[in-house]
Amino acid sequence: MEALILVDIQRDFLPGGALAVNDGDTVVPVANTLQPYFDLIVATQDYHPADHLSFAANHSEKQPGDLVQLKGLKQVLWPVHCVQGATGAQFADNLSMDRVAKIFPKGTDPEIDSYSGFFDNGHLKATGLGDYLKEKGVDKVVVMGLATDYCVKFTALDAKQLGFTTVVIGDGTRAVNLQPDDFDKAIAEMKAAGIQILSSEEFVAKQKEKASRS
Ligand code: VGL
Ligand code: ZN
Questions:
Q1: How many structural domains are present in the chain?
Q2: Which of 90, 101, 172, 182 could form a disulfide with 30 if both were Cys (CB 3.0 to 4.6 A apart)?
């Protein structure tokens, strides 16, 4: 059984949002196009309390992009984003949500960030996504959303490490690109971990080919 994981397709990561990803809105139609090919769809939601320590504003004399240590881990500081209950934390307006079976909030502990949809950055606590997928009999996951170089990458790496066959839809993601080559680096890192990168077009063609053979 295959599941689609939609990573953090939220207003604050779209153009005009607090942590806008360039062309972040282009992943929304890709997400909507892929949904009919799945029996199980889940979404992760970056969902921080206002006092979250990944926000530069919660440290004195720090700017977004600066580095600090949180629980012994290197942490990039971000603008205030995806605050619980705020509009920026909402899913993209045009994203189809009616077939999303379950939403997994993450980054809810003020003291540690959570890029992956499965675990916080210290792998201290699970969100429940891994157990949920295993209970549903999922053996393969297709991952897409925002952002390639953070939450998509770490979600895909954890999925692979948990034993799921893992595919990332290249054009279904966009990167923050604090450095201009961060997208390419993230793709290379995922490939090196045994994750397959497919375009949405290639994915759809494969599904159609499968359907015609069965
Ligand atoms: C993300 C930075 C901070 C992401 C979330 O969804 O990739 N990036 N919080
Ligand atoms: Zn965040």
A1: 1
A2: 172
* Model confidence at 214: pLDDT above 90: no
- Of the listed ligands, the closest to the CA of 81 is 2
Task: Give CA torsion, residues 86, 88, 94, 99, to 10 deg.
Answer: -60
CATH of the domain at 202: 3.40.50.850
Given a cut of 90, is residue 39 above it in pLDDT?
A: yes
162: pLDDT strictly greater than 90: yes
Q: Is residue 7 part of a domain?
A: yes
Mutate to test the pocket of ligand 1, among 21, 45, 83, 150 (most ligand atoms within 8 A of CB): 150
Cis peptide leading into residue 31 (ω within 30°): no
Give pLDDT tens digits for 74-120.
Answer: 999 999 999 999 999 999 999 999 999 999 999 999 999 999 999 99
List pocket residues of ligand 1, CB cut-off 6 Å: 8, 46, 78, 146-147, 150-151
Q: Any idea which residues carry the catalytic annotation?
A: 8, 106, 151
Residue bearing the CA closest to ligand 1, atom 2: 150
Q: Is residue 67 a part of any domain in this protein?
A: no
What is the whole-number distance in angstroms between the Cα of residue 147 and the centre of ligand 1?
A: 6
Alpha-carbon span 169 to 192, nearest angstrom: 16
Whether 107 maps to a domain, the answer reads yes
* pLDDT given at position 123: 97
Quick check: is 29 in a domain?
A: yes
Backbone dihedral angles phi then psi of residue 40, each to the nearest 5 degrees: -135, 125
Best of 6, 53, 151 for a ligand 1 pocket test (most atoms within 8 Å of beta carbon): 151
Cα–Cα distance list, 208 to 7, 193, 211 (Å): 25, 27, 5
